Amino acid sequence: MSMAKAKEYEDFDAATLKDKRARPITQAVSNYIWSTGDFHGIRFNSRLGDDISLWAIYERPHELTGVSPQISGIEMHHLSPEDPAIEEVFELFNLRWTD
Fold first, then answer.
1. DSSP assignment of the chain, as one string?
2. pTM for the structure as a whole
3. Residue 19 lies in a domain
């Protein structure tokens, strides 16, 4: 991110990372963490609430032979637009189901 873009924020704290307008900052933070090569991913709280935990799993080019070796216990489930969890996510993000 450019310094001009960073200067748009007078103060930088955890609240800044939850501001949806600060996406370039969150991307820069994640890119920095990824670039160290020391981490397989990060866990963070959603801007929609601290009770929602999100994960970003970093895949390295040499790992792209299918599923990341950092992911295990994969379960496959059919998604339906009538599923209450799907309805909740679609409502939160103003999405609609298409075929």
1. --HHHHTT-S--SHHHHH-GGGHHHHHHHHHHHHHTS--SEEEEEETTEEEEEEEEE---GGG-SSS-TT--S-------TTSHHHHHHHHHTT-----
2. 0.56
3. yes
